[in-house]
Design brief:
Two copies of one chain form a homodimer.
Chain A lengths: L1 H6 L6 E5 L5 H10 L5 E5 L11 H17 L4 E4 L2 H14 L4 E3 H12 L4 E6 L1 H6 L1 H9 L5 E6 L3 H7 L5 H15 L5 E4 L8 H8 L4 E4 H15 L13 E4 L6 H9 L5 E4 L3
Parallel strand pairs in A: 1-2, 1-3, 2-9, 3-4, 5-6, 5-7, 7-8, 9-10
Amino acid sequence: LKEVIMQADQTSPIGVFDSGVGGLTVARAIMDRLPGESILYFGDTARVPYGVKSVETIARYATQIAEFLIERRVKLLVVACNTMAAVAFQTIRDLSPVPVLEVIEAGARGALARTRNHRIGVIATSATVASGAYVRAIKGLGNGCTEIVSQACPLFVPLAEEGWTDHEVTRLTAREYLGPVLAQDVDTLVLGCTHYPLLKPLLREVAGPGVELVDSAEAVSERAELLLRDLKLANPGLEPPRHVFHVTDVPMRFQEVGERFLGRPLGNVQLVKW
Amino acid sequence: LKEVIMQADQTSPIGVFDSGVGGLTVARAIMDRLPGESILYFGDTARVPYGVKSVETIARYATQIAEFLIERRVKLLVVACNTMAAVAFQTIRDLSPVPVLEVIEAGARGALARTRNHRIGVIATSATVASGAYVRAIKGLGNGCTEIVSQACPLFVPLAEEGWTDHEVTRLTAREYLGPVLAQDVDTLVLGCTHYPLLKPLLREVAGPGVELVDSAEAVSERAELLLRDLKLANPGLEPPRHVFHVTDVPMRFQEVGERFLGRPLGNVQLVKW
């Protein structure tokens, strides 16, 4: 794989991958911030969701996807899936000849930059919470006196995919999940799953005006911009970008759900049969 | 594969398979009705849920699982997954040297036996509803003048797995999904997904006393009893039954969720690495 990096150049795409469509919110943030960059997206829609799978299985799948993208000459890998970032980041970095960014560190940095009372809430899938990755990232980057309250919210993903982003059921579910977190007086809440940005208005309402929401998708796109500039790998934009979306299955309502997440039409979608 | 059937005998196990843990409600109904039979269960927990995947992918996975069980000398296959039964039953029957039963025909028969006003409601996953399988089964078995109202309820599976079986969020979700079905004056409601029996008390409450619920798990276990007797393949029960549970992943809370679905301890669990 070491030869690959020699072949990647400024015009090479950024590889963004996720267990499904959720990572399209990250692709969207990168497109908005870096309109000259091409994106090679991989969504493992046949095997989604990862959030409830074992660590071994998640690491095996992550390796397979990262190798797929590296073989296609990406210049940078972005792990858009919180679950993969939480349990398989080290595995991916060890195998990759190109730099790897992920949403958790970015979200942790964003939260630390915003909190004033050093009490941070993190909401995510069960696997992400159980991994303790956000707690480690925030403790590792912070000054050590930060209190972190984590809460698994497994129903938010199906609710976002059902399109119930402004629905009484979602509001009630959010109150149930966020109640114990808000009771701990946090002033910052990390949306630790790529699906959650779609619930942002509702979560902002439930959390109230005293709590700032941190969106990892925006945070990681900022990191990508800086890193590409530092490595002199930013695309000079002489040609229009080309985006390709690889998926392992074309599930029902894929187009509709995907375009809602991406915020624009899905162009070139390729089916990968694994 | 034809040689396999020659090797299967009365003491061979019944193969029961599903996309995940949901089919354990079917295994449970069979254990309750046929306590002398051994069960070889297969739950594709690494690739669950199937309900939103494409027909091609579901058929490919179903073939792989059926072959796995046939190679292990089952005497009967029970497709416990409504989604697989809806879109891949023909594929499975074509490849199988042993008889195949599935939940949809059984549920359709149960509904027709109970309805008095010939208005039947069916609730299931999006893929099952989109396949039209229940409508075809009920129309095919009935006298042709039955009205069928179908409703996809994608949030019921995550709600059942979250354990919110008696929760205000689930009640509100059930009212939203069932509202249009009940407005059509149905007197019978088919629970067209293996997860739904866990929500039975709540669904009974929301549906009201005038609506009878049909549980496909019970219906298919009845069919299995009759078929084994007809084929002289019922286990004489000289030795205690042996149950083995194959899963493609051991997800978080598997033991807890699985035992809730099975209604007893999970004994011999084997991990299949695909």
